[in-house]
Amino acid sequence: MWLTRILSLMSRRSPSPSSPDRPAKRQRLSHLTKESFKNGVFLAPMVRSGALPTRLFALQHGATLVWGPEMVDKAMLHAERVVDPVTGVVSFNGKSRAMFTTHPIEKPYLIFQIGSADPDLAVQAAKTVMHDVSGIDLNCGCPKPFSTHAGMGAALLSNPDLLCSILTALRAAMPPEITVTAKIRLLPDQADTLKLVERIVNTGISALTVHCRTRNMRDRDAAMIGRLREIVDFVAGMGKGIAVIENGDCTSWEDAKRIREATGAHSVMIARGAESNPSCFSTSPLKDVEQTLAPSYIRLANYLENHWGLTKFCVAQFKAQHLSIKKADAKLFREALSRAKSHQDPVLDSIYAPDALSGEEEMRLIVNAIESRTETSFRMVLPDPSASAPADPSPSVESSEKLDDTLTITPPGTQNPEPPGTGAPLLPANELLREVPALVSGKDPVTPSPHITDLTTAA
Ligand SMILES: Cc1cc2nc3c(=O)[nH]c(=O)nc-3n(C[C@H](O)[C@H](O)[C@H](O)COP(=O)(O)O)c2cc1C
């Protein structure tokens, strides 16, 4: 096993420049366009959980694009940009800590999300990061009081003039190769939602994500994906070629396919499913995450000098099916994690297999996987429903553009033996029933707080 992994590592290294058999270099994305937001399965913006190592693992395992955690505009204005000469990690540092970290390898796929209630501040924040990202997204959906009381997040949904002025300012200030997008929630009324969508699309954005819950809905309320098709058709009717991205209750590649077929959405975005398992984008996501993903994550995070509290928080969220490890072993792992005080704490030694890769080797695997991608890698192209009926009427993953096998990094032997897609939401049979919990719940916030407080509290 040790030898196999090292050999696989070596075989992924670039051949020497003099090698006559060197394969032609694959074409890489130069910059994103409206089309880049179509046929994708994306990592959602997640404060804390969307940390750099999570985004890198998501890309390694098939996420088409990744959104960074929301950063409030003001926080970025005085950030100092520092590049680590060894790892290449780019940090935007505040007074006491890095507020946002990225790595150049993710830049072609990285969307930076801003929380803002002011066009000028949003533009300044976007300018601070624009050389390190491919797109800027405006958060118009966070229902948490820390966001809404300042007029940001979901508060923008009831202030469309301000919302649109921020998007317009961003579009005007950003160079054309930087996309500008928005992430909204549904309004309680569908006609109001369409009016808002029309205004947003007219600002010149490249894509629109719709979290199919209203501001007052909780995560446990089923996403109202039944409302999305009308929005998709409406945006298509505007003729601007804008992608509509579904968000809400998708947990896997198979779910994404079913949701796209049910809603007509161009792409799907996954949040909590990826928080539990950043490899959920793969057609064969990792199982036994305590033994597979978690050790790799901790080593990579250590190499990238991720904050330990953040690493610990992210790893503690991991959850997946157990195939070969016993419950008792998973429990031992969680106990070790909760006792650990740093990435290198000896209490963690027991979680590593003797052949475990170093953090640098993990990074090299990820870099090689990402560099091997082409513009069509990890795209989910569905059959055109308007085309004549296919020979095989039962849609399967083969009918989508399948992941390039050579690029599927999930190790063999970890296939899911169960029928996939069990978590996919069905179209609501009764919209009113779906609405009830939201109406009852009043103004309960949905998005978890970004705990701007000291991250070490997670340690
Ligand atoms: C831990 C966590 C942090 C989140 N942070 C953000 C954020 O920074 N920006 C944002 O627009 N949404 C944020 N969300 C909301 C998600 O992006 C997504 O809209 C929501 O979880 C629904 O998707 P899901 O059903 O796949 O979880 C967050 C969600 C979670 C679970």
CATH superfamily of the largest domain: Aldolase class I
Number of helices: 15
Order of helices and strands: HEHEEHEEEEHEHHEHEHEHEHHHHHH
Structural Rg:
22 Å
Largest sheet: 9 strands, parallel
Mean pLDDT: 83
* Cα shape: globular
CATH class of the largest domain: Alpha Beta
Bound molecules: flavin mononucleotide
Into how many domains do the coordinates divide?
Answer: 2
Domain DUS-like FMN-binding: 43-311
Region (Disordered): 382-459
Biased composition (Polar residues): 407-416
Catalytic activity: a 5,6-dihydrouridine in mRNA + NADP(+) = a uridine in mRNA + NADPH + H(+); a 5,6-dihydrouridine in mRNA + NAD(+) = a uridine in mRNA + NADH + H(+)
What does this structure look like?
This protein has 459 residues and is of the alpha/beta class. It has helices at 2-12, 52-60, 73-77, 119-129, 145-148, 160-173, 190-201, 228-237, 253-263, 272-276, 293-303, 308-316, 327-339, 359-371, 431-441; strands at 41-43, 66-67, 71-72, 80-83, 90-93, 98-102, 110-115, 135-140, 179-186, 207-214, 243-247, 267-270. The strands form two sheets. Strands 1, 2, 3, 7, 8, 9, 10, 11 and 12 form a nine-stranded parallel beta sheet that branches. It has a three-stranded antiparallel beta sheet with strand order 4-5-6, with no helix packed on it. Helix 7 links the parallel strand 9 (179-186) and strand 10. Helix 2 packs across helix 14 (359-371) and helix 11 (293-303) runs antiparallel to helix 12 (308-316). The two termini are 33 Å apart. The protein binds flavin mononucleotide. Keywords: Flavoprotein, FMN, mRNA processing, Oxidoreductase, tRNA processing.
